[in-house]
Amino acid sequence: QVQLVESGGGSVQAGGSLRLSCTVSGTRLSNQCLGWFRQAPGKDREWVIVVSSAGVTSSSDSVKDRFAISRDIGKNTLYLQMNSLKPEDTAMYYCAAASRSWCYTSSSHYTYWGQGTQVSVSS
Fold this sequence. Notes:
With 123 residues, this protein is mostly beta strands. 0% of the residues lie in helices and 50% in strands. It contains no helices and eleven strands. The strands form two sheets. Strands 2, 4, 5, 6, 9, 10 and 11 form a seven-stranded mixed sheet that branches. A four-stranded antiparallel sheet has the order 1-3-8-7, with no helix packed on it. The radius of gyration is 13 Å and the shape is globular. The protein starts with a strand and ends with a strand.
């Protein structure tokens, strides 16, 4: 059974940084596409950044050059480094795993989801 558990959320002022972690069990990170999504109150879930099994990353324009995704294969953990945070980054952040090695940006392509971790950015 595949399980994803996020951690590292919190409150930060604009311009600050946070690093989210997603510990994965039941599958190996190197086998599939992984990603981070977020959902703000009253809005649809949106993709943030993804990494394929081959290590190719892609990020949305809203976080490009500010957020980075990485994997620790040995620890089976996915990370999201968030820098230069803005109030509009406030959302619940979810890690997700797809049942394939390549990535799509639509959340419907992801099979496994964590429970989410809240990120709040104040101005």
